[in-house]
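$ fold --in a.seq
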Amino acid sequence: MTYSIQSYSLTKIYNGRTVVDQLCLRVERGAFYGFLGPNGAGKSTTIKMLTGIIAPTSGTARILDFDLKRSSLSIKRRIGVVPEDLCLFENLTAPEYLVFMGRMYGLPRRVALHRTQELLEVMGLDGTNGKLILEFSTGMRKKLSLCAAIIHNPEILFLDEPFEGVDAIASRIIREVLEQARKRGATVFLTSHILEVVERLCSHVSIIHEGKLLSQGTLEDLAKGGRLDEAFLRLVDSGKAKETALSWLEAKN
């Protein structure tokens, strides 16, 4: 079996607190992989380590058969990332930003211009040419960030909450673009709190909680014929949920 992502005891400690704990992931090439967990589980930190944004405290990973520590530049040329905070250059227009990103990835200017135009049209951003990115809505920013992540035709897409804060139309467009990338052979690795989207898109899923990997495998194996949200709660909750009834909202006799 060929893997696009493998991590070996990947660990990150901040100020004495273990945020990611001995994480061992196996992501097959061409998989649509959902990386799930509650808030603060370590999902964003894991993506930052796998993409070379931050260094692990211990452990390592192989991305596309490259060692994460020794070949970070070779890895970055082959991946696309939509980070948690998007990191857009807000004083540029969308075309300026995408052409710049294309050139940074080594695309000839003619190719970068052509792909920029096509991406903006597909994402419904082609009417924003004179508008600075700082004026964009959350949904527009998410779509633009995805454009920048795929302009160089990457082999892996790392997406941190790509559907958060976007409307139904933007969500559909993003899903269609991701499906097209996967059919072309790219691996898609995403985090999302919207389990219905994960259930619709993903072929493989893993669940992390308090920095530890609880489960990973195919969506069918994890759900075991039921719903993904039920499997998620079963693994993460483990009977620790607090009473949800509020005293002042209880029904009166």
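$ fold --in b.seq
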Amino acid sequence: MNSHIIEVKGLNVSYDKKNVLTNVYLHIEAGHAYGIIGPNGAGKSTLFKAILGLVEPSHGSVTVYGGKIENARKKVAYIPQKDLFDQDFPATVFDIVLMGRYPHKKIFQKINDEDRQKASEAMKAMQIENLGQRQIGQLSGGQQQRVYIARALCQEAEIFFLDEPFAGVDAMTEESIVTIMHTLKAQGKTFLLVHHDLTTVQQYFDKIILINQRLIGFGDTEKLFTQQNLSLCYGSQLSILHKIQQL
């Protein structure tokens, strides 16, 4: 039986006739935390969007659970960079978290008490139960990120895509997200995170994907996270490597 829940084969993505990703081959296995690592402009967010069907590849294919992403929407949660959200959206925190139940509903099917209970449990897990009646724009960046993670938890997804979830959040929020990730990973859930802080890669991820418009490598963090591979990935941006404590 194929254990690959996501397969990317020969993926090319172009914007305005310029290649952003070239000939990417990947397979993602369930129950792991993958760090997507690479310099600015490397195509990390584009890789997410291509897997999720939000951009059209110019070449290649992507399958999720052996088929099209449209057939697996319930199982997939996507949390883009927080500044992409409408800060004036007229909904409470509880309303936004409850949106995680919509993929499980048929047309015209109403939200019920079980859905509300799941939303409450997700908010409690992210320690935002006291913010339920606040409007999203009134929250700090760290609080907002907790809300969107809670929505994904409420959805009961199997695969979580998080695009720079730690950007602009406080240390306590980052710790909460990592704790939730490791807890759910132990239950068989899969996480893919675009991540920039190389000092925490070994602590956060058991697998990594090194990318810079093409795939530099992917696999176990302990084997792949070396200065040689990082040099191949970051090229002239080697100045960041001095931040790494241990390799």
